[in-house]
Amino acid sequence: MTRLFRLLFWAATIFAVTMALWPLATPMPTAALSDKWQHMIAFFTLTVLAGPAYPRQSLRTIALAMILLGLAIEVAQWALPMLNRDGSGLDWLADGAATLVGLVVVGTMRQVFRHPAAEPRER
């Protein structure tokens, strides 16, 4: 199962990064799903997939990876004017908030299912 979740996680990551860095020819329509909601859906999904994809990683490590990914996306959007996008601290905040909610789900799943690989190693 771990391999399936890793495949799903990396496919979703590639999709999210591609969509975030795809150059916009025109501004997004206002009737579309809010930019903040898009960020939150993406980072919640990535976080929830990361839990079972990497069961030995701590929640702190998963959180750090997601927060750094969000930061990297925003810096790239800010630094690359040809994308016709604006990096935003509020988008990064939305990423972080969704990551925190996703961590609650992952932590709960780990408690309920008690995956042996998620148990701390004895010394």
The percent range for strand residues is: under 5%
Distance between the termini: 27 Å
Shape: elongated
User: Portion of residues in helices?
Assistant: 55-70%
Low-pLDDT residue intervals, each spanning 5 or more residues:
none
**What's the overall average pLDDT, rounded?**
88
User: For the report, how would you describe the main beta sheet?
Assistant: none
Radius of gyration from CA coordinates: 16 Å
Overall tally of structural domains: 1
Structural class: mainly alpha
Q: Can you write the helix and strand succession as a string?
A: HHHH
If helices are DSSP runs of H or I spanning 4 or more residues, what is the number of helices? 4
Number of E-state strands: 0
What does this entry look like structurally?
This protein has one domain. The two termini are 27 Å apart. The chain has four helices and no strands. The protein is elongated and about 45 Å long. The mean pLDDT is 88. The longest helix has 25 residues, at 89-113. With 123 residues, it is mainly alpha-helical.
